[in-house]
Amino acid sequence: MARIGTKFCAEWVQISINPICSGIKILLMISSDDLRFFNVLAKSATLAECARKLDVTPPAVTQRLRALEARIGIRLIDRSGRKITLTDEGALVASHGTIVAGAMEALSEALSDRKNAVSGHLRVAAPHGFGRIHVAPVLDAFARAHPGVTVTLELSDFPGARLIDTCDVIIRIGPSPHLNEIVTTLAPNRRILCASPDYLAGAPPIQRPSDLVRHRCLVVRENDEDVTMWRFTHPSREPETVRIHPTMSSNDGAVVREWAIAGQGVAIRSEWNIAGDLAARRLKRVLPAWEVPAADVVAMLGTRSGRSARTTAFLAMLRQSLSPPPWRRKTVRP
Questions:
Q1: Is the pTM of this model over 0.70?
Q2: What is Dmax (Cα atoms) for the chain?
Q3: Which of 123, 277, 308, 328 has the fewest CB neighbours in a 10 Å radius?
Q4: 167 and 235 together in one domain
Q5: Sign of the four-CA dihedral 251, 222, 158, 283
Q6: In this structure, is residue 221 part of a structural domain?
Q7: Sign of the CA dihedral 286, 224, 186, 53?
């Protein structure tokens, strides 16, 4: 039985690697560490980006790449431009490297499940502000509770589907625009129209959403979304949609929050982000009888290992830390 298994494995490897060069000899020249390194390189736009992901210097990446190419006698990267471009052979190595890495990780997770252990590498992506305040402390506690786990937290302005192939969990504020992803809700989060008391004291009254066209409006520009269309609902009136004209905009929600506190205008911000400001009266809710669409805190599960024990354990710990939502433990005044 062992002979059959060995023969099958050898034939599979020879078939897989044959388009790169004839014979199975090249198999002995590429280690699993080489495949992991090249997978990171293949998913990076530049050598510098790869170096940041590996926490090494760009010259170290270049040196390792050259050593790998020299060992197998094949060029894997086209060096004619600044961005990384895979040769046909490089693309083949990357594709098979992904298969091998996935198989090795699946085997490791299966063995861990057999002994009821949470282990492996957990990769999490989250928005900058929310990630620093609410995700990073949970990962700290998670790593302490499970010494066999290593953790990477990637903070991004707009974590989304572009990270789905490299992360186990992606935390988002608001629903994912990609309906084919696995999404689970972690905590409720309203979005609130707000402004500073000083701004409201010196500006025309805001009695209904249509009044906003005469006000300074602050927006967060995310991806290619239309952030100038503000939608409102009321329990006893018809919904209203207002096309505002942004006075100031930024791709950083923290900046827009600071502008609102400074009296620059009216903004729509997440409840998790400004609950403390409302309680401290640095900001005041505008049109409290009207609601804007909520943006719950959700987790997108990566297709690569969405059902791993470490992912399940981390989500349980994160959900517990958000129940009840920390931003609703504060006293919020209109």
A1: no
A2: 85
A3: 328
A4: no
A5: positive
A6: yes
A7: negative
User: C-alpha distances in angstroms, 113 versus 96, 203, 212, 310, 312?
Assistant: 26, 61, 56, 10, 12
pLDDT of 96-107, one tens digit each?
777 776 666 666
Q: Are 219 and 228 in contact (CB under 8 A)?
A: yes
| Residue 290 forms part of a structural domain | no
pLDDT digits (tens, 9 = 90+) for 242-256: 999 999 999 888 999
CA distance 168 to 311: 7
Q: Is the pLDDT of residue 223 over 80?
A: no
Q: Which residue shows structure tokens 């490089």? A: 90
Q: Are 327 and 136 in contact (CB under 8 A)?
A: no
pLDDT at residue 284 greater than cutoff 80 = yes
Using one digit for the tens of pLDDT, what is the confidence trace for 4-30?
343 333 333 433 444 444 434 444 477
Residue (of 269, 303, 298, 299) closest to 284 by Cα position: 269
Same domain, 205 and 257: yes
Domain hosting 212: range is 191-285
3-state secondary structure of 266: strand
Residue pair 65/73 in contact (Cβ under 8 Å)? The answer is no
Q: Kindly tell me if the per-residue pLDDT of 143 is higher than 50.
A: yes
Question: pLDDT at residue 83 above 50?
Answer: yes
CA distance linking residue 120 with residue 154, whole number of Å: 17
Dump the DSSP string for 157-216.
SS-SGGGTTT-SEEEEES--S-TTSEEEEEE---EEEEE-HHHHHHS----SGGGGGGS-
Residue for token digits 């050898």?
10
pLDDT confidence band for 93 (50 / 70 / 90): confident
